[in-house]
Amino acid sequence: MPVNLTQPLAEQLLPVKGVALGVAEAGIKKPGRKDLLVITLAQGSKIVGVFTQNRFCAAPVLVSREHLQAKLPVWALLVNTGNANAGTGDEGVDHARQTCSALAKLLKCDPRSILPFSTGVIMEPMPVECIVASLPRCVANLHENNWLKAAEAIMTTDTVPKALSKQVSINGAKVTITGIAKGAGMIRPNMATMLAFIASDARVGLPVLRSVARRAADDSFHCITVDGDTSTNDAFMLMTTGQAQMPEITGINSRESIIFRGVITEMAQWLAQAMVRDGEGATKFITISVEGGKRHEECVKVAFAIAHSPLVKTAFFASDPNLGRILAAIGYAGIADLDVSKISLYLDEVLVAENGRRAIRYNEADGQEVMRKQEIRIRVLLGRGSATSKTWTCDLSPEYVKINSEYRT
Amino acid sequence: MPVNLTQPLAEQLLPVKGVALGVAEAGIKKPGRKDLLVITLAQGSKIVGVFTQNRFCAAPVLVSREHLQAKLPVWALLVNTGNANAGTGDEGVDHARQTCSALAKLLKCDPRSILPFSTGVIMEPMPVECIVASLPRCVANLHENNWLKAAEAIMTTDTVPKALSKQVSINGAKVTITGIAKGAGMIRPNMATMLAFIASDARVGLPVLRSVARRAADDSFHCITVDGDTSTNDAFMLMTTGQAQMPEITGINSRESIIFRGVITEMAQWLAQAMVRDGEGATKFITISVEGGKRHEECVKVAFAIAHSPLVKTAFFASDPNLGRILAAIGYAGIADLDVSKISLYLDEVLVAENGRRAIRYNEADGQEVMRKQEIRIRVLLGRGSATSKTWTCDLSPEYVKINSEYRT
């Protein structure tokens, strides 16, 4: 059961002018599961991406990057689940190209106008024939109202599809944004393991779009972790069709650009948090604020040391205020000149530790009460500067182990 | 059930001339559990230590380091379980000093001749009175044959005591070494979470002893990980009483020194591996060899990325050869210029991946057969140099989560 996250309704997801979506059951996954998605973009659309940093990046990542570099208009995105096409060498790259060519033939465009994305099991040969055979069905049911079906088609161990729409007024023009994402395990910064696609009808210049994508990712997908694993396949794609009636947003720091970045960041944060809420086996949603650091980077280090500690995570699962484990994680986060006697720790509003030790007024019943909640905030004050960070994570339950032990069965 | 590790027998543990051990039930832990240990060292003994790198190091670590710096002869080590005396601030330091003073009074020595060690729950006030009240019982039962009782008295979540003796001939003189250790979870390099005490009757100069301790730790305790957590309290202490009939070992690279280092390293490796074998919830013992790196440090990075990946660990628990997860971990280990097309991966003798992709001859039944074993070797060939590393770890099972959820109950 995800933590405070419910199934979106199809009617809550707004169509984005110029974007159509078609899905199919290609038989890559178990029968009865949608596993293939085509997203087409109308002429004049723009797209930018943030890709995984994993050196073992998968064939579709290599091919998508190469196709983007060709600087042709992007006609469509082709996404499959059930197979990651990673650790598959040159053959995997050929397979990714074959699926692009097949879709290009159907859409009558250059194969480099197709961007491929895959997610699923690593190091298995790609069932190219199933995909190619199912593409005509995807194309036949392309429709601008298919966002929910699209969100379902990219799910892996997700228990609910993740999708959201927003509308915002930019200089009087109504702009629509709809986004979908998948991700539940193997989650940590640098796009892992997740796919997110956010589309808008706004008219946005390419430099602004690039800047917005990067900064939105920094404040969302790069702030979450479930288990610290970084995947081979992942990407966040931001696309605009330019079909809203508005002048193009150009200046990176213009008022319009800031409004647009704000709404994209909100959407990305919601999708990123949805992944944590649906984190494999998660029963708690935990926000970690680190304040008073010398630099942002050291705050992030402290936050991830806490977020990745299996001992902290199991204590949260058990609702056990064994909070010394948080202090231990701060201590090994890698800040060489950390003065622990300046550190304070809050759990929601409860002061747990001050001056690097158990707070004199702290009483375990108060800690216990917070630990029982489903949404908990850990606040660490480092007392050495004014930098801050915010990170979202979940607890570690026996269910996580079960899901990942049985992933392929 | 630990992986291929059985309870040692008291008669297998050899007394070390000049070392006596006394234990008691001080009531820090549940009734019926030994939780207090005193180890005394005869006059003329030498002792060196390797301590935790955690910035939140516990009060006993601070006090032990300070007492060592006083350069007085060390008369005794005082070890308790059940409470870590960490995150306890100045009061914790006072408590550690009080226990040292109480033991010093009984032994009639300077309090700085006592080194304190604690392990257990973090951020709880230390039950000083229980400890002080039980010290006379420890002192009353001091005996050179108490090594097994000592190993039992330092256990936390360990399911078996960890102890070993060896004898070696150095230039015709018989040298005896006996060691004990505790550790089962929160295990990673830099002494976490573990205590290890190795004693010998050898006559060894202090510079040699320092060098041996550091190098033995590098090749043993720094090569293991269970869950990646680094504790606040941990230490490896190496002590010699000098009571064997032999000339003092002085040159760091002398033949005698190399023999001594060899046997201490073997003991330390056995104790380190015993912690992994008894790792919380462990069902598999995994050796990770990384070869062909440019530097040792990058091999270690790759090994720990694999060893810390919850996805790799759960696949091993499930005996599921989902080995792409190992490639993904290699890819995010942080080697920026890694050429994945040069990487090979073996599971025992089975070639799983070559040239960065699934090996052509690899067949899953072979991988499956290896995955079913209790002891498995992962061998990664990076193909970029001649550096190597060796690391030991275990799998991740639901039992790990259960143990750490219920640790304080």
CATH class descriptor of the largest domain in chain A: Alpha Beta
User: What's the CATH H-level homologous superfamily of the largest domain in chain A?
Assistant: L-amino peptidase D-ALA esterase/amidase
Kindly state the percentage of residues in helix of chain A: 25-40%
The shape of chain A, in one word, is globular
Number of domains of chain A: 2
Report the biggest beta sheet of chain A as strand number plus sense, adding barrel if it closes.
Answer: 7 strands, mixed
Radius of gyration of chain A, taken over Cα atoms and rounded to an integer in Å: 22 Å
Report strand order across the widest sheet of chain A. Answer: 9-16-11-15-12-13-14
- Looking at the chains present, what oligomeric state does this protein adopt? homodimer
CATH T-level fold name of the largest domain in chain A: L-amino peptidase D-ALA esterase/amidase
Distance between the termini of chain A: 21 Å
The H-and-E topology of chain A, N to C, reads as EEEHEHEHHEEEHEEHEHHHEEEHEEH
Structural category of chain A: alpha+beta
Q: Report low-confidence residues of chain A grouped into runs of 5 or more.
A: none
Number of helices of chain A: 11
User: Largest interface, by Cβ-Cβ below 8 angstroms: which chains and how many residues each?
Assistant: A-B, 70 and 70 residues
What can you see in these coordinates?
The structure is a homodimer of 409-residue chains. The mean pLDDT of chain A is 91. Chain A has 2 domains: 268 residues, L-amino peptidase D-ALA esterase/amidase (4-Layer Sandwich); 121 residues, Ubiquitin-like (UB roll) (Roll). Helices cover 32% and strands 25% of the residues of chain A. The first copy, chain A, is of the alpha+beta class. In chain A, a hairpin with a 2-residue loop joins strand 6 and strand 7. Chain A has a 7-stranded mixed β-sheet, with helices on both faces. The interface between A and B is large, with 70 and 70 residues.
